[in-house]
Amino acid sequence: MNYLIALLTVVSVSTFPAGAQTLPPADIYVLGEIHDNPHHHVVQARLVETLDPAAVVFEQLTDEQADRLSPDTPRDAHVLGEIFDWANSGWPDIAMYAPIMAATDAPILGAAGAPDDLSAYGLSDPLPQAEQTAREQLQADAHCGALPAAMLPQFVQRQRQADALFASRTIAAFDRYGGPVVLIAGNGHARTDWGVPAAIARVRPDLRVVALIQGEGGETLPGDVTVQSDAPDRDDPCAAFR
């Protein structure tokens, strides 16, 4: 393990320094999050400001939404919320994401949307059985056990496709703008074992990728660097299924 990564594997938001030296050099930074945790977005904004990326790609945006921005668009929550029709997006409050966009004047790009040519990512290849089983269990847990077992493989495949699409869009941003490029995405996409970093490594092993996983004080997913912060007050997401 890289010595700097080892030093920074677990830090807290209260002690997390603001400088770009907090992350090892990379071509692509995948900055993970738990979507509704405002502390995680503070960390992302701080890092985007100090990393000074050539472009920032967002899981939360399609390329069509990102195209609505111009260099003169004010990057504040009200304006961005209107431009992106954020209230109907299903994502947490735009006020958590706007500071990330305001932390840079680099192009803002969308990772979601119509699929690219993803044939290079091996999406039709079966996963090792242990990984398939683990992924299906994660999908079952994420959906509060409400999904029929027969649907779980479909949800695993959707996650694989999303990881490949986000990787494709991030690589395209790097090839167009140079580096570094930042991808803002959920921890499930940022994980290094089978998320976006693994998808990038499959097709572009020449690119250096550093993945940040953000936790809430407990066990976290595999990543190069882990940041812990407090969990926000939230309702039980599974209460409706009981």
From TrEMBL:
InterPro entries: Cofac_haem-bd_dom. Residues 1-20 form the signal peptide. It comes from the Bacteria. Gene3D superfamilies: 3.40.50.11550. Residues 231-242 have a biased composition (Basic and acidic residues). Residues 221-242 are annotated as: Disordered. Residues 21-104, 128-199 form the Haem-binding uptake Tiki superfamily ChaN domain. Keywords: Signal. This is Putative iron-regulated protein. It comes from Jannaschia donghaensis. The lineage of its organism: Bacteria, Pseudomonadati, Pseudomonadota, Alphaproteobacteria, Rhodobacterales.
